[in-house]
Amino acid sequence: MELRHRGPTDDPGILALRERQQRNFLATLFLSQGVPMLLGGDEFGRTQSGNNNAWCQDNDISWYGWEHEGWQRRLLAFTRRLIALRREHPVFRRSRFLAGRQLEGSGLPDAWWFRPDGRRMTQGDWKRSGTHTLGVFLNGDELTETTTNGREIVDDSFLLLFNAHFEGVELRLPNQSFGREWTVELSTADDELTPGTERFAARATVPVTARSLMLLKRVPPSPGRTAGDAGTGAR
Predict the structure, then answer these.
(1) What is the per-residue pLDDT across 8-57, written as a single tens digit (0 to 9) for each?
(2) What DSSP letter does each residue of 105-154 carry, written as one string?
(3) Interatomic CA distance for residues 186 and 109, integer angstroms
(4) How far apart, in whole angstroms, are the C-alpha atoms of residue 105 and residue 224?
(5) Contact at 8 Å (CB) between 24 and 191?
(6) Apex CA 231: angle with CA 186 and CA 113, to 5°?
């Protein structure tokens, strides 16, 4: 991760953005499907001063530094948090491809991409070059996975909110068929955020910091009511 060393600086704003971008890369990796492949040292910002081919550098460019600065300790703690989150939730480590439709009878698709207004992404939206912000619903009730003894695997459901723009945006959540209430589990804009301290109702607008990612977890529905009672809403 060479972002920390794209030129030396003591500008607090630039340093904060570089740290956030490192967290963005790590969060995107660990919250994606498939097997995460992390280069040793990325978990604490081993940048090699931007040198991506330092095999012949037997000096502090290629050496591992085990005496970490404050920003490196924060990055390492954030990486450990992502690893624990992925280990705890099978929705982030499926063994089958996403279908974009209902497979297990939950009333909702296994995954559903949406625009900043909370509506479904269309083909035109995907082709629009100026799109910087979008979200995805990951359905923990549609994993189509079983344990080794044949028991069905279910998990919490999540929303991932992405903002690649250089300005903050407000992203509207999907309607209540996807979830009546959501809590913030993680934000790359605030690596010290305590999960569950912020809540948002369906169709609420969520402020998403410039160049950041947010992860929201669905609050389980009350007994006797399922998340899909109001219909799929996937249109």
Answers:
(1) 888 999 999 999 999 999 999 999 999 999 999 999 999 888 888 888 99
(2) SSSS-SEEEE-TTSSBPPHHHHH-TT--EEEEEE-TT----B-TTSPBP-
(3) 23
(4) 16
(5) no
(6) 40
Place of tokens 């950041």: 212
Residue whose structure tokens are 């992860």: 215
Spatial neighbors of 200 by CB under 8 A, at least 6 apart, are 173, 181, 182, 183, 184, 206, 216
Q: CA-CA distance, 191 to 176, in Å (whole number)?
A: 28
Global confidence as pTM: 0.89
Q: In this structure, what are the phi and psi dihedrals at residue 102, rounded to the nearest 5 degrees?
A: -75, 130
Query: What CA–CA distances, in Å, run from 16 to 12, 143, 184, 212?
Result: 6, 37, 21, 12
7: left (phi over 0), alpha (psi -120 to 50) or beta: left
Amino acid at 105: G
pLDDT in tens, 181-208: 999 999 999 999 999 999 999 999 999 9
